[in-house]
Amino acid sequence: MNASQLQPGETLDRFRIVRAIGHGAFSDVYLADDPGGRPVVLKCPHEALLGDVSAFDRFRREIEIVRRLDHPGIQRSYDAGEDRSRPYVVMEYVEGETLRARLRRQGRLPIAEAVDLAEQLADAMASAHAQGICHRDLKPENVLVTPDGRAVVTDFGIALMAGARRLTWRWLTSTVGTPDYMAPEQVQGKRGDARTDVYALGVMLFEMLAGRVPWEGDNPLAVMSQHVNAPVPSLREVDRAIPPPLEAIVRKCLRKDPDERYADARALLHDLRSWQELDLSSFVFGEESPPRPESRRGLWLLVAGISVGFLAACAIFVIAVYLLQHAG
Fold first, then answer.
1. Are 39 and 31 in contact (CB under 8 A)?
2. Is residue 283 part of a domain?
3. In this structure, is residue 4 part of a structural domain?
4. pLDDT at 2
5. What pLDDT does 4 receive?
6. Phi, psi (rounded to 5 degrees) for 92
7. Who contacts 178 (Cβ-Cβ below 8 Å, separation ≥6)?
8. What is residue 177's predicted lDDT score, i.e. its pLDDT?
9. Is residue 300 part of a domain?
């Protein structure tokens, strides 16, 4: 346990810690009560990371982003900007389970449930995209589903805001995201935009309908390579009962060229809401050309860089944990 981790009953400024929700590589997350007894979530970056100027800039960027977002499908910020004894984010507490937990318990979801959740997620991200904000790490772990079926997007820690300067962080490589849900442009080290979120939404809809992600492999690098090179598997080969319009929507989301995807989540939402009346003749997909040799060479150079960067980050994290444990 890190020396800085908080225990139930302790206080952090005006908040009383109820219990830990999760401990990640870069932050600890707690359920707490505010002075009025309202449950809130506190996201506390590890103190060792905040000694890095770039890491602290990224954390402040996250605070600025979540304060701008106001949609029932996005976890709300309760930050009032008051002085604090240490940096942390105060967020809405959403009762429920992650979409990942639901998929593990149920496997494939009924078509109506899958489409409903996809619509809700697209609606939430349409609101973010309208403000120039891209999540860039959409995945079932970052979606909460309440007991009444409301989907809520969480964790804008690596989100991008239009017009903001690019932040570099020595703890991470230039590639951000989670391999199973990363768009080809993310794999290639590009910043991404609203179409990158559309791609991740397409992967999640595929997973909800098929019970698995489109591409699987023995390691993250193998999966990342397939996102760039492999054709999209057919949903209707998994289950012929999946309606063709839904497969067409997923295939459009998963086009390797961002220009061939939905322009943003609002465009995707339009088709999800009217999927039963879609004109399939408008979904004309030619075969996608494999990457040029120089692009493939660039991919493997990136993969090599990611591997080195990941090992370096692991070593630095272990050292930081050791120093925290032996502080004082």
1. yes
2. yes
3. no
4. 53
5. 72
6. -60, 140
7. 137, 139, 141
8. 64
9. no
Question: Which residue is catalytic, options 28, 123, 137, 180?
Answer: 137
Residue 245 and residue 284 in one domain: yes
| Contact assessment for residue 159 and residue 64, using Cβ atoms and an 8 Å cutoff | no
- Contact assessment for residue 125 and residue 253, using Cβ atoms and an 8 Å cutoff: no
Count how many domains the chain has.
Answer: 2
In a domain, 309, yes or no: no
Q: Is the same domain home to 146 and 254?
A: yes
Residues 65, 161 within the same domain: no
Contact 241, 222 (CB under 8 A): no
CA 104-107-110 angle, 5° bins: 135
Please name which of 155, 134, 145 lies closest in space to residue 77, comparing C-alpha atoms: 155
Tell me the one-letter amino acid at 96. Answer: G
Q: Which residues of the chain have pLDDT under 70?
A: 1-3, 50, 81, 163-177, 286-328
DSSP assigned state of 238? H
In order, the DSSP letters of 183-226 are: -HHHHTT----HHHHHHHHHHHHHHHHHSS-S---SSHHHHHHH
**How far separated are the first and last CA of the chain, in Å rounded?**
15
**CB 316, CB 171: distance < 8 Å:** yes
Q: Give me the pLDDT at residue 180, please.
A: 95
Alpha-carbon distance of 181 to 138, in angstroms, equals 7
pLDDT of residue 48: 74
pLDDT at site 52: 72
Residue 137 catalytic? yes
Taking residue 123's Cβ as centre, other Cβ atoms within 10 Å add up to 20
43 is in which domain, residue-wise? 11-92
Does 55 share its domain with 144? no
- Residue 279 and residue 314: Cα distance in Å, rounded? 49
pTM above 0.85, yes or no: no
Question: 239-258: per-residue pLDDT in tens?
Answer: 999 999 999 999 999 999 99
Report helix, strand or coil for 304: helix
